[in-house]
Amino acid sequence: MDVSLIRKDFPILRDHPEVIYFDNAATAQRPACVTEAVRAFYDETNANPLRGLYDWSIGATARYEAAREVTASLIGASRPEEIIFTRNTTESLNLVARTQGMERIGEGDEIVISVTEHHSDILPWQILCKKKGATLVWMEPDEEGYITKEEYTSKITKKTKIVAIGHVSNVLGVMQPVKEIAAHAHECGAIVVVDGAQAVPHTEVDVKDLDADFYAFSGHKLMGPFGIGVLYGKYALLEETEPFLTGGEMIEYVTRTEATWAEIPHKFEAGTVNAAGACGMAEAIRYLQGIGFEAVRTQEETLTRRLMEGMRRLPYIRIYGAKDPASHHGIVTFTMEGVHPHDISSVLNEDKVCVRAGHHCAQPLMQFLKVGSTARASLYFYNTEDEVDRFLMHLEGVRKVMGF
Amino acid sequence: MDLKGLYREIVNEHNLNPVHKKEMTDYDLELRGVNPSCGDDITLRLKVKDGVVADASFTGEGCAISQASCDMMCDQIIGLQTEEALSRAELFHGMIRGEVTDEDALEPLDEAASLQDIAHMPARVKCAMLGWRTMKELLT
After folding, report:
1. Residue B5: which residues within 8 A CB-CB, separation 6 or more?
2. Which tens digit of pLDDT belongs to each residue from A205-258?
3. What is the pLDDT of residues B4-60, one digit of tens each?
4. What is the pLDDT of residue A220?
5. How many whole angstroms separate alpha carbon A36 and alpha carbon A48?
């Protein structure tokens, strides 16, 4: 893979070689083909999809449904109807909690989640537990960030009705053994909801192989537009699930007192949908598949190894999570002795380096790690070894600027 | 002044060697101030005698700007009438919002006026404000 050629596909990277964008876990950059696909939708066949009986609306519907098929193929869904378009991972997880969660959970039941979760995979379950008098049970990771077999088999029991787990941690970058967790959870009679926001952009995901009941991710982290996300659900489960939002285009028939629901997936897509966003995300998926996950992984591993080796030479840097760079999915979370992460990020910004600093929407994990906040460099396949070297130089510079 | 200059010339000294960051036992007022998104978390303690701030100190942790700004603030308000301290807080807020820029008008802020350029760094405004905001809450 020639990264210098790939970077030409991204106008923002091509036009700003001086900027080091290492905040890819927050959102990825977009190749021109993605913004072009969004433009093409509006300029060529813009109409409200799924409603009109004229050509433009039929064309809009065709593009929207084609995007669903591309998305289904990315994660190995059995059929396109198992793909529900949402705004983002957060909405997808809330959808499950507010529908299946409300129906499935009763007083005394347990929902099992991990300390490594993002707030969007904590709060919907925390609130659900409070409403229903259920108990939120926390799995804790080992020193590298993994949920061990001992941990998940002791926490997931016959009392467990739902297990919600992040596939790849947005702070530690480690991939949890979702397939094994799902197998155990199913034996216990629980359903498994997976937050795949940090996994799908970096690795092949096969929802059937994982045996996930629900799987959520966002378009923008895999180079798609903002405001389009995905909830995969097993067909039979979606069929039995009541709608989330209600209103336009999710019904079969409405009278003054009653309504029946449209077929899935439309039952879960109330109101006018983000069809152009879906088309943009589909183009991003095609682009990602064109690059290939093998190439993505190779480049990310090369860069992460170089980055972690460089950081380990700096005695005042502490890296969190797994020792093996290959286990990080491009995410390297760290602290600098004596320097607050916000100061690291602000000083790096002066050198046009973009990293995240703070709690990364994972405060229970910060509490578990006993740090107030951390800095996070997160890489993607279009980053370069030269950027890693410059980053390391700037990191040493931060230390000096801060008076050490 | 750019951010690096600000750190080197003003912030680092107060951050690394804060004069007023210490435990205090004989205080009259105490309040915790937090910036939830950053993790800045301080506890400000004031000793007030006959309407005058007799002593001020803080504990806690946060970014260099929050810690330095709070240290400078403590320095500034010790010996002031509480009303004066509150009006300094207003002045500092006005400076950080970019509303008060006149050098003479900012003179009462003394060293704290050196944080004026934070007004151009929107991501760091609430760091600089934390100590002052907490003091204002404590005295009103």
Report:
1. none
2. 999 999 999 999 999 999 999 999 999 999 999 999 999 999 888 888 999 999
3. 999 999 999 999 999 999 999 999 999 999 988 777 899 999 999 999 999 999 999
4. 98
5. 19
* CATH class as words, domain B3-139: alpha beta
- Gap between the Cα atoms of A217 and A212, Å rounded: 13
Cα separation, B16 vs A346, whole angstroms: 18
Name which of A349, A373, A401 is nearest B39 (Cβ-Cβ).
Answer: A373
Whether A361 is a known active-site residue: answer yes
> Using an 8 Å Cβ cutoff, are A311 and A319 in contact?
yes
Location of structure tokens 């997931």: A156
Enumerate the residues of chain A whose CB falls inside 8 A of the CB of residue B3.
346-347, 349-350
Residue of B nearest to A340 (CA): B63
Mean of the per-residue pLDDT values for chain A? 96
Give the DSSP H or E segment for A356: strand A356-358
Cβ contacts of residue B36 below 8 Å, gap of 6+? none
| Yes or no, beta carbons of A343 and B8 under 8 Å apart | no
- Asked if residues A295 and A382 have their Cβ atoms less than 8 Å apart, the reply is no
d(CA A10, CA A17): 11
The closest CB to that of B3, out of A340, A347, A366, belongs to: A347
Q: Which residues of B touch A (CB under 8 A)?
A: 2-4, 7-8, 12-13, 15-16, 37-41, 61-65, 121, 123-124, 127
Q: What is the DSSP letter of B120?
A: G
Dihedral angle computed from the Cα positions of residues A382, A356, B11 and A320, in that order, rounded to the nearest 10 degrees:
-100
Taking CB atoms and an 8 Å limit, are B2 and A350 in contact across chains?
yes
Find the catalytic residue in A33, A129, A279, A361: A361
Q: By the CB < 8 Å criterion, does A340 face chain B?
A: yes
A401 lies within 8 A of chain B by CB: yes
C-alpha torsion sign, points A295, A220, A81, A62: negative
The interface pTM score, or ipTM, of the predicted complex is 0.90
- What are the tens digits of pLDDT across the range A292-348? 999 999 999 999 999 999 999 999 999 999 999 999 999 999 999 999 999 999 999
3-state SS, residue A28: coil
Q: Report the candidate in A342, A399, A338, A326 with the shortest Cα–Cα distance to residue A375.
A: A342
All structural domains of chain A, each given as residue ranges with its CATH number in brackets, are: 3-22+292-401 (3.90.1150.10), 34-289 (3.40.640.10)
Pick the residue from chain A with its C-alpha nearest to B17. A403
What pLDDT is attached to residue A248?
Answer: 86
Which tens digits make up the pLDDT trace of A113-125?
999 999 999 999 9
Q: Name the token pair of B70.
A: 């709070």
> Cα angle at A28 between A23 and A33, to 5 degrees?
155
